[in-house]
Amino acid sequence: MITMQDVAIKAGVSKSTVSRVLSGDNYVKETTRQRVFKAIEESGYRPNLLARSLATKNSQSIGLIVTNTLFNGPYFSELLYQTAKMTENYGRQLILVDGKHSVDSELEAIQFLLDRRCDAIIIYPSFLGEAELMGLIARHDIPFLVINRDLPHAREHCVFADHQRDAREAVAYLIAQGHRDIAFITGAAGSPTAAARAAGYRQALDAAGIPVNESLLAAGQWSLNSGFNACLALLDGAAAFSALVCANDDMAIGAARALRERGRAVPGEISLLGFDDIPVASYLNPPLTTVHVPVAQMIKSALEQVVNVLDGKGVSPLKPFSGRLMVRDSVIPGPFAGR
After folding, report:
1. Distance from C-alpha of 168 to C-alpha of 203, rounded to nearest angstrom
2. Nearest CA among 67, 52, 36, 74 for reference residue 277
3. Structural domain tally of the chain?
4. Residue ending a domain, choose from 160, 181, 208
5. Are 122 and 63 in contact, with CB atoms under 8 Å apart?
6. Is the pTM of this model over 0.90?
7. Which range marks the domain in which residue 215 is found?
8. Would you say residue 305 lies in a domain?
9. CA-based diameter of the chain, in Å?
10. CATH number for the domain that contains residue 185
11. With CB atoms 3.0 to 4.6 Å apart as the test, which of 53, 85, 128, 189 could cross-link to 59 if both were Cys?
């Protein structure tokens, strides 16, 4: 087994010099640094990163925790891509850990990253509540950044979109287009995003003086198949509707298939609206009207907060991010347009 001492002998320097090079010490001469790197390459030496992080208190890594139920979909792809790209830009390595399916499993994932001396931890929580998240922030010295969850008393530790406002404005747009009977497919039960978007739907109807018809609500699970099945259930129900809102684009795509199979034209008979603005949304036939969630900007802000803390700089609380309605061809004026 090749050791640091072997590298030092090969490079003609002391063991402490090799250690300083590996820790990024800027006071080592460049010629010496290059000799050490060449000796490492030729000898095949692999430093013990965990031991080095214990010694330097800096692993140059950032942990990301996401439950695996989000892995299978374009939203996660965008989240992971943006996080990996930004982490690379800051010269750090990204470690992705599965938060699995419970509070305990998310806590275990956090401990896994703490044990590996990550410099910071970013979590997209599905099960941890505000109290648990605030406790983690209070107990640990390393930066914690929470994505897609509002922590009203620790806004400098969270980045989130105002899903309720976005949903309210999207449904208000449908109402302004002359739709009154608006169906809604919700996201998964227990999801804060699902709850916020459903609340925005109800708020928009209430503001327009339109009673909420509970028979026009169907439960989804964020997936294509759940959107398909929920839409079929709505079509089989007693209440008619001229517009359908789905809590994400995947479910809207599933719903579009259900509408086609039942011979219901989009948008001729039923206007369709989604959320997230996934890449395929603008390529559907018809292109999907949806709410664009600024994932890239959110991740950039999250990493900037983390890096500023690591660099000893101050951070300020972040304001909620606002989505943007992308008006495309899947929505047309409804039966009450102009009235």
Report:
1. 6
2. 74
3. 3
4. 160
5. yes
6. no
7. 163-293
8. no
9. 87
10. 3.40.50.2300
11. 53
